[in-house]
Design a protein that fits this description.
By secondary structure, this protein is of the alpha/beta class. The protein has two domains: 3-219 and 405-460, 4-Layer Sandwich (Metallo-beta-lactamase, Chain A); 224-403, Rossmann fold. It is 30% helix and 23% strand. The chain contains 13 helices and 22 strands. It has a seven-stranded mixed beta sheet with strand order 6-5-4-3-2-1-22. The chain has a seven-stranded mixed beta sheet with strand order 7-8-9-10-11-20-21, covered by helices on one side. Helix 4 runs antiparallel to helix 5 (130-136). The model has no long low-confidence stretch (mean pLDDT 94).
Length: 461
């Protein structure tokens, strides 16, 4: 009788989460995420899966973010026909996010093939298409928090609220077979204690092994009051400069946090002087999903019987024409657009029209992976290239760290502290420096048996 865990994606890095669980001859994928970052990194998405697709009996997803769910359509395209288990709201968000990812893959392939065609090179197939993503949704089987599901014989699954984004889950896997009774807990991505919209992550008391994310394992988020002050100052300075404010935001989670904070501080931040645009069809649909599942979090983001945030000067721009019209505005526009790492989407068009203007402001509100345009902007690059054209970076760049959807070091330590038996911890989903710092803290404070998971490492639970 065996219960094994093998680490693959998001080991000593943040994106591309993927782990393999083997139970008595059955194989389960825990996460099936897309690798995000630079062109070289993203090429890895085309690699074979670490186990044969025909061997996989089930897939479990902790939440809908593409670095955790984004290769499910590819898995299905390569022949997988088994169940994909998620929380109810995660399934609803995947219905939005995965087809959008397929669409972007098609666009990326078209762009690449223009260059390849000119050079007489072999054309590239999209990683997967929008149709592939829509088709794979028939495999999804969803459950409520706290509901028990038998994934394969002897292995029970239960989701707990992770407080990260809508539907995000801590994954508890309980294996029982004859004389063996073992529990593996995977944190998924844990939410920040001061997150504006989501609940606090649920705390569990017992496990035989814990996989824990470590994205911000080496730092503490600044006090949330300071974050609110900084946002207020950004809007005040931008108002005086008579420019626009661009906010590249993750369409799920960060966008809804921003809309809630804008509504809560509407008068204090004098937001009546602005026009607020949510310029992302996917973010608009995601916000409607937040309205549908508003029972999963405590704050009032929407008016009664409405899917629109409580902002009188709020505009949803679904069409390309509506989006293009925003670029006729020289002053007084706050534009929330994807992608959150500036790696694609409508934010590129707004950067093209505003990044070279010193009176404009770019507000970075989330983690920026190495190799992304967002990371280069945060690091102070003086020039960027969009569609083959170069643009000087003259807009003022603000990094608002306190709006992270991820737990900081204190949150991670507090979450682990709830385990009464101090189980062994395997750190995943973090860069080396963050993981080493968290490893040291866990050992010092709890005398925890902790290690940093490595690629292809196998452990017995």
């Amino acid at each position: 009788m065996s219960f094994q865990l093998q680490f693959f994606g998001a080991t000593e890095r943040v994106t591309g989460s993927l782990y393999v669980i083997r139970v008595d001859g059955h194989t389960v994928l825990l996460e099936c995420g897309l690798v995000q970052g630079g062109h070289k990194e993203e090429k890895r998405n085309r690699d074979p899966f670490p186990v044969s697709v025909s061997e996989i009996d089930a897939v479990i997803l902790s939440h809908a973010h593409i670095d955790h769910s984004g290769r499910v359509p590819l898995l299905a395209r390569r022949g997988y026909e088994g169940p994909v288990y998620t929380q109810h709201a995660t399934r609803a968000l995947c219905e939005i996010m995965l087809p959008d990812s397929g669409y972007l893959n098609e666009k990326d392939a078209q762009w690449e093939n223009k260059k390849r065609g000119k050079r007489g090179e072999k054309l590239l197939e999209p990683l997967y298409t929008r149709a592939d993503a829509e088709a794979c949704m028939s495999l999804f089987q969803s459950a409520a928090y706290g509901q028990d599901i038998e994934v394969v014989p002897g292995l029970m699954l239960r989701f707990h609220d992770a407080g990260h984004i809508l539907g995000s889950a801590i994954v508890e896997l309980h294996y029982r077979n004859h004389d063996k009774d073992r529990t593996l807990v995977f944190s998924g991505d844990l939410g920040y204690r001061d997150a504006p919209v989501m609940n606090l992550p649920e705390k569990l008391r017992y496990a035989n092994a814990v996989m824990m994310e470590s994205t911000y394992g080496d730092r503490l988020h600044r006090p949330f009051a300071e974050t609110l002050t900084e946002l207020a100052e950004v809007f005040e300075v931008a108002r005086a400069a008579k420019g626009n404010v661009l906010i590249p935001a993750f369409t799920v989670g960060r966008t809804q946090d921003l809309l809630y904070l804008m509504a809560e501080h509407y008068d204090e931040w004098r937001l009546g002087d602005w026009q607020i645009f949510l310029d992302s069809p996917m973010a608009i649909e995601a916000t409607e999903t937040y309205a549908k599942y508003r029972h999963l979090y405590g704050v009032k983001l929407f008016g009664p019987d409405s899917h629109l945030p409580n902002l009188p000067n709020f505009h949803e721009t679904m069409t390309t024409e509506e989006s293009m019209a925003i670029n006729q505005i020289d002053s007084g526009a706050i534009v929330i657009a994807g992608s959150g790492m500036c790696s694609g989407g409508r934010i590129h068009h707004h950067l093209q029209n505003n990044i070279w203007r010193p009176e404009c402001h770019l507000v970075i509100v989330g983690y920026q992976a190495h190799g992304t345009l967002g990371r280069r902007l945060v690091d102070g690059v003086e020039e960027i290239k969009l569609w083959g054209n170069k643009y000087q970076v003259r807009a003022r760049i603000h990094t608002i760290g306190g709006l992270s959807a991820h737990a900081d070091q204190a949150d991670l330590l507090d979450w682990y502290a709830a385990f009464e038996n101090r189980p062994p911890v395997y750190l995943v989903h973090g860069e080396g420096r963050a993981q080493r710092a968290l490893e040291k803290k866990l050992k010092t404070q709890f005398n925890a048996p902790v290690s940093i998971a490595t690629h292809e490492q196998t452990i017995e639970i």
